[in-house]
Structures are given as C-alpha cells and as structure tokens.
Amino acid sequence: MQLLKDRILKDGIVKPGNILKVDSFLNHQMDITLINEIGKEFKRRFADCPITKILTIEASGIGIACIAAQYFDVPVIFAKKAQSLNLDGEMYCSKVESFTHKKVYDVILSKKFLGPEDHVLLIDDFLANGCALLGLIDIVKESGATLEGAGIVIEKGFQNGGQKIRDMGVRLESLAIVDSMTDDSLTFRD
User: Fold this and answer.
1) How far is C-alpha 21 from the chain's CA centre?
2) 111 is in an annotated binding site
3) How many other C-beta atoms are found inside a 10 Å radius of the C-beta of residue 99?
4) Taking the chain (190 residues) in consecutive chunks of 10 residues, what is each chunk's mean pLDDT?
C-alpha cells in the first residue's frame, strides 16, 4: 500500500533494536484519514471471506480494527492484557510476549464473544516475531471459530514472525513489509 509506505518514510523513526516508531500517525496519535484507507484496503484484500468478527489485542490494534470493521459491518473484539473486575464468566487465555515491551502477558477474551459459528479476521498494527498473532490464533482455535486470515499494517519482514504465520497456512496480508532498517534508511518488499 503505497500511501502507507510513503507515510512511514516521511514520519517513521528508526530506533536502536529494530524499533520502528510510527506513533505520530498510527499507534499513539492516529491519522484517521490514513487509517480509513487502511480499513478499506483490508476489506478489499479479504472481500472473499465471510468475516463475522474482527479480533485484535489491546491496545494499538483496537483503533485500526474498529475502522476496518465498519467496512466489514462486523463487531470488533479484543483480547485484554489484564484481568479486571468487570470481566466475568469463562475466558479464553493465551500467553503473548511483546517485542517492544519485552514482557509476557496473559491475554484473555470472554467466551461469550467468540464461538464455533464465527469467521475471524485478525488485525494488528505490527508483526515482528509473531507472538501476538500466535496468541490470537490460539484463542481462535480454542473457540472453534474459523480463522479466515490476518491483516497486518506493518510487517518486519527481516524478523521471523511473518514466515512462522505463513508456514502455519494462515492467510497473512501485510500492507507494508519492511525488508531492512538502519538508522538512516528503510527498504520495503514489493
């Protein structure tokens, strides 16, 4: 998606440790015009799938998933990274290691929102090592729902997450795949 690649080149900042900061337009401050185009692109790429739910993980994927969901006309559900007093009933649970936070989370989702009748599209902002997606895939499998695919805004193609997910047979659509990053340059896969 050229619009996204151009924005990454213009406003993205590469930090030591293979960190790509896109917080000025994607995952802290959100450029809704750009995210609206991202939502349209996910709908175009998954138009052949009978999506009934979009699943993401808190927090950065929620806004993107919500914008995309309006094009699919389906609800968004998100796995929470912490138990809270307002969560009740049975839960799906999976462990997820965050690349940027260097922390393992138990992610949870109420069983009342996902079941065998659902056709799920996973949406997230980044794919690096694949841990977040693997956790969401585990939840979908545990629920008995059908996983239709995963939509990622930015994939770090030089890390192994994308290959892991594709090797599992999951349909993975990444809108921008970064092939390499240095302090002063980024290259994208075509």
Assistant:
1) 16
2) no
3) 19
4) 96 89 94 98 98 94 97 97 69 83 86 97 96 96 98 96 97 97 87
**128 has binding-site annotation:** yes
Query: Is 129 flagged in the annotation as binding?
Result: yes
Helix (H) or strand (E) holding 44: helix 32-45
Question: Is 65 annotated for ligand binding?
Answer: no
Q: Is 81 annotated as a binding residue?
A: no
- Joined together, the tokens standing for residue 146 give 């059908």
pTM assigned to the model = 0.93
What is the spatial distance between Cα 78 and Cα 84, in angstroms, rounded to a whole number?
14
156 is in an annotated binding site: yes
Residue 65 Rama label (left phi>0; alpha psi -120 to 50; beta) = alpha
Domains parsed from the chain with CATH numbers: 2-180 (3.40.50.2020)
